[in-house]
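Ticket #4471: structure export looks truncated?
Reporter: QA, pipeline team
Priority: medium

Steps to reproduce: submit the single chain below to the structure queue and open the exported record.
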Amino acid sequence: MMDRLTKTLLVVVAALIILSPIGILLVWNYSDAWGEWDVSTVEHMVGQKLPGMEKLANAWNHAVLPDYNVPGWEDKLHASIGYIISAVVGVAVVLAVYYILVRLAAS
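Actual output as written to the record:
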């Protein structure tokens, strides 16, 4: 049986997962969501070249769900579902890593 704190945390995480598409839906017809800018956009905003950002921009190109979405799902409904799937995958990965670290620490 789960204690009350665990149940509350699961409800909060589930609510955050369900609400995760709000950020992209609010800016759907305007621009990228806050903080999801590419190098050229940031350089334009700052007014100068950012060599460190340019160097690291392509350091990781192996995303399971690039842009938090399933490739080909471009409309609002499918993009929202893609965000929720990404959130579930992210939570699952974090919990798996946590579980492995706890197991390793306990042994």
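Status: closed, not a bug. The export was complete when the record was re-opened. Leaving a note from the reviewer for reference: The longest helix spans residues 76-106.
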